[in-house]
Amino acid sequence: MLLPKLRESVYKANRELNESGLVLFTFGNVSGVDRKAGIVVIKPSGVPYDKLLPKAMVCVDLKSGKIIDSIYKPSSDTPTHLEIYRAFKNAGGVVHTHSCYATSCAQARQSIKCMGTTHADYFFGDVPVTRPLTKAETIKEYEKNTGLVIVETFRKIDPVEIQAVLVANHGPFSWGGNPSDAVHNSIVLEFLARVQIQVASLNPNAPRPPQYLIDKHYFRKHGKNAYYGQR
């Protein structure tokens, strides 16, 4: 079996995503990439999470998107994952869900604003919303164009500092250094979306925190001078 360790990692991450409560039925998917081999491993399309096995994970070529080693079809979102991997070299895992609160923000076309330290611990700024896809982009190569509009949104945003996005009228995507990290970020993203909706109900005009507080919380966990956690 090709890439057994990555397949096992992607399998476990998909199960973890399901156990997190962020997905319903067969909604959502997790993938991972082996950049040296040029292969992406992703959940098979439409297979229930409780029926998954490591050997069912689908290997596709990072450049061409062609299936390499599987009897299953890959997730229909595979072209989106591929565009993220091609553009964001830091991404080792990608997650897509239709989780309730993050999807609500995506459908409202409302970014998840950096309003406090919990957000800044993970994302150095607002989690953005893409522009809507055009009719032409939707009719032809929809999933690929979804990936391209994500990449377009990050032209002036560092995908290392903000490892998530909301696709307008669709839902969230997140990424991380590996599949498990990407799932972790998707769970945090959902929490932050829930907090934002609650904050807006309490005070729609709540002021943003000072930048120095955001800087402190982000850089104590990220970068060369980070000191949070154990060495």
Q: How would you describe this protein?
A:
With 231 residues, this protein is α+β, with helices and mostly antiparallel strands. It has a single domain, classed as L-fuculose-1-phosphate Aldolase. It has eight helices and seven strands, in the order αββββαβααααββαα. It has helices spanning 4-19, 78-87, 100-107, 117-120, 135-139, 142-153, 179-202, 211-219; strands at residues 29-34, 39-42, 58-61, 67-69, 93-96, 164-167, 171-176. A seven-stranded antiparallel beta sheet has the order 4-3-2-1-5-7-6, with helices on both faces. It is globular, with a radius of gyration of 17 Å. The protein starts with a helix and ends in a 12-residue tail after the last helix. The mean pLDDT is 97.
CATH architecture: 3-Layer(aba) Sandwich
- CATH homologous superfamily descriptor: Class II aldolase/adducin N-terminal domain
Percent of residues in helices comes to 25-40%
Our measurement of the CA-to-CA distance between the termini, rounded to an integer number of angstroms, reads: 36 Å
Q: Structural class, judged by helices and strands?
A: alpha+beta
Number of helices: 8
Low-confidence stretches: none
Say what oligomer this is. Answer: single chain
The CATH C-level name is Alpha Beta
Number of domains: 1
Q: Give the overall form.
A: globular
Beta-strand residue percentage: 5-15%
How would a textbook summarize the main sheet?
Answer: 7 strands, antiparallel
Strands side by side in the biggest sheet: 4-3-2-1-5-7-6
Q: Radius of gyration from the CA trace?
A: 17 Å
**CATH fold description:** L-fuculose-1-phosphate Aldolase
Q: Give the mean pLDDT.
A: 97
Order of helices and strands: HEEEEHEHHHHEEHH
- Total DSSP E strands: 7
